[in-house]
Structures are given as C-alpha cells and as structure tokens.
C-alpha cells in the first residue's frame, strides 16, 4: 500500500516529523504562500499547520484527497471548521501540549506587570537609575480573576495560589463545584470584574468572545486593574483598552496576542503601560516537542481510521 502524503506549512519539531516519516511521505513547505498552497494541496492526504496558515473553505474545495487537518497547538480559529465538516475532513489539535508553557508565560507577564520589569530593564540599558519611580505592587494578598478555567487557567491558578493570591474564576462551561475542586472560588463575570486586582484571560476566540473585554467590561472593573492575555487576539477590544489605559481605569496590560498578527507598531503595542510579546506562549522547546509528537500521532490515527483523542470537527 502506498504511503500517505502529508504537508507541513508552518514547520514541525523534529520529534513529530520523525513519527510521521515512519509511515508517510512528508513535505515540509514552511512559509508557503496561500496561492502556492492552493496549487499543491490536491496532492495531500493530510495537512498540519500552526497559527500562520489560514485553512479556508476555498482551500478545502481544492483539496481533493484531504482527509485530516492537524493543528500543532490548541487554537483552531485559523481553520474553517464548518467547511471542514461539509467536506468530511477531520480536524484534530494538540490541546494539552502547550498548557504549561502558556501558563508559565502568563505568570511571567503578571510579575512583569506588577513590578514593571521591562521598564526597569530598558532604563538600565539607557544608563538610567529609576529606583524611586519603579514602585510596584505585590501579588501576595491580591485577587486574580481567571476567565476560562480549563487546563491553562487551572495551571495559572496554581501558580497564583503559591504566591499567596486569592484566585477566583468564571467559566460558563464548568460547574461551580468543579471550579472549587480545581482550586478557585467561582464567581459571576460581573463579580470577577468588580473584585479582581489582576485578570487573566484563557478563552478561545469565538463569535461570543470576540471583543468581550470592551468598554462595558472595563466600566465594571476596579480602577487600576491589570490585565493579561496570552489566549487569543480579538478577545480584548484594543481600541477600548487604549482608552481605559489612558483614563487610568486599567493600570497596565500584558499581551501576547493581538487582533492582527503581527500587529506592527500600533497604539496598543507602543503604549507605555502595555507589555507586548510576539505570541510566544507556546514557544518553549518542551511544548513544541510535545505538540509535534501529539499531532503527528493524532493525524496518523485519523488517516488509519483509529480512535482519536482530540477531534475538534
């Protein structure tokens, strides 16, 4: 029997590629353009992407042989799931592989916000000694509101509790007893806004969550609240965020994700009270290795008709 043909468009760690190449012909066309992808996709049984490649309905129309799309990571908002369903194409991801990496970055951003670490470093590199100006706040005793209490939110909550923070969580998909079991006090969204000194977002980008954190949400928050988002760009209304930062309603924000990526030097990115990183939540050696192995095994299972752990569509 001939081997499956698998296309990689955004790269894949060597561990995952090794698994794939034992059972399939693998073409690594990292960085391929949308036009060129449209031309070559008819030759492939499987497509593995990360966040860069947009898997559109028109691409699937051209993909005569395509049986499965694998997302080497968590979010699948770059894949048209409805079109995949219509074409009978399976979509799988690797939802557990990057949880620790994203949680650790999130907590690093919380600390950076609390102590203005990036500003302190930048000043030192300019020969400035801003000791008196850099009075931060302690995390100990503060309330962290976690919106979305799945795998990553829970890991962030564990780290916050270790720092002596009071952790509250809102997740409409998880019962209150389960939120308590996972280590946080359940709260309504309105109460979370009102009580939190820091807010961390751990939600997918959907029709319901797009621009969820906008003017109405900011109005309900504590004055000086600090916000971290290493989930998905588009959950925060960036225009409303800049307004809230300028008014002092929001004391600071740390963003790893943006509505448009790369965003360029936008008003949000350049704001003095914003810490910006280039979507590096999953960018650890360990997370990339795990993601590559997980998605390689899942894609091969889909091609063979075997049971799947992480089918999205």
Summarize the biggest pleated sheet.
7 strands, parallel
CATH superfamily label of the largest domain: NAD(P)-binding Rossmann-like Domain
User: Would you tell me the structural class of the helices and strands?
Assistant: alpha/beta
- Helix fraction bin: 25-40%
Task: Write down the secondary-structure element order.
Answer: EHEHEHEHEHHEHEHEHEHEHEHEH
What is the CATH level 1 assignment of the largest domain?
Alpha Beta
Choose one word for the global shape: globular
Which second-level CATH architecture of the largest domain applies? 3-Layer(aba) Sandwich
The chain-level mean pLDDT equals 96
| Fold-level CATH name of the largest domain | Rossmann fold
| Domains (count) | 2
Strand order of the largest sheet: 8-7-6-9-10-11-12
Q: Kindly report how far apart the N and C termini lie.
A: 27 Å
Instruction: Provide a count of the helices.
Output: 13
Tell me what the structure shows:
The chain has 313 residues and is of the alpha/beta class. It folds into two domains: 4-97 and 285-304, NAD(P)-binding Rossmann-like Domain (Rossmann fold); 99-276, Rossmann fold (3-Layer(aba) Sandwich), CATH 3.40.50.720. Helices cover 38% and strands 17% of the residues. The protein has helices spanning 14-21, 34-40, 57-62, 81-87, 99-115, 117-125, 151-162, 176-181, 189-195, 215-220, 238-247, 267-270, 285-304; strands at 4-8, 24-28, 46-49, 68-71, 90-93, 143-147, 166-170, 185-186, 198-201, 225-229, 250-255, 274-276. The strands form two sheets. It has a seven-stranded parallel β-sheet with strand order 8-7-6-9-10-11-12, with helices on both faces. Strands 2-1-3-4-5 form a five-stranded parallel β-sheet, sandwiched between helices. α7 links the parallel β6 and β7 (166-170). α1 runs parallel beside α13 (285-304) and α5 crosses α7 (151-162). It is globular, with a radius of gyration of 21 Å.
């Amino acid at each position: 029997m001939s081997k499956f043909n698998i296309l990689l468009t955004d790269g894949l760690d060597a561990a995952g590629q090794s698994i794939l190449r034992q059972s399939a012909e693998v073409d690594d066309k990292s960085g391929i353009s949308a036009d060129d992808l449209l031309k070559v996709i008819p030759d492939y049984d499987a497509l593995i992407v990360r966040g860069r490649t947009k898997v559109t309905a028109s691409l699937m129309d051209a993909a005569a042989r395509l049986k499965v799309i694998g997302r080497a990571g968590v979010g699948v908002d770059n894949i048209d799931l409805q079109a995949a369903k219509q074409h009978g194409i399976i979509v799988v991801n690797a939802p557990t592989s990057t949880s620790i990496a994203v949680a650790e970055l999130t907590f690093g951003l919380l600390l950076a916000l609390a102590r203005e670490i990036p500003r302190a470093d930048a000043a030192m590199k300019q020969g400035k000694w801003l000791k008196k100006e850099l009075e931060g706040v302690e995390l100990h005793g503060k309330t962290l509101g976690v919106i979305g209490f799945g795998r990553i939110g829970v890991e962030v909550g564990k780290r916050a509790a270790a720092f002596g923070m009071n952790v509250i969580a809102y997740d409409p998909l998880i019962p209150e007893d389960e939120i308590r079991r996972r280590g946080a006090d359940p709260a309504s969204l309105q109460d979370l806004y009102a009580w939190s000194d820091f807010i961390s977002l751990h939600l997918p980008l959907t029709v319901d969550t797009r621009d969820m954190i906008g003017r109405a949400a900011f109005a309900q928050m504590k004055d000086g609240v600090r916000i971290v988002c290493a989930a998905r760009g588009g959950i925060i209304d960036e225009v409303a965020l800049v307004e809230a930062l300028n008014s002092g309603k929001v004391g600071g924000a740390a963003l790893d994700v943006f509505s448009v990526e790369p965003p360029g030097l936008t008003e949000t990115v350049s704001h003095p009270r914003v810490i910006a990183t280039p979507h590096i939540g999953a960018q650890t050696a360990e997370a990339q290795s795990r993601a590559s192995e997980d998605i390689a095994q899942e894609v091969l299972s889909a091609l063979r008709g075997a049971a799947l752990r992480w089918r999205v569509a």
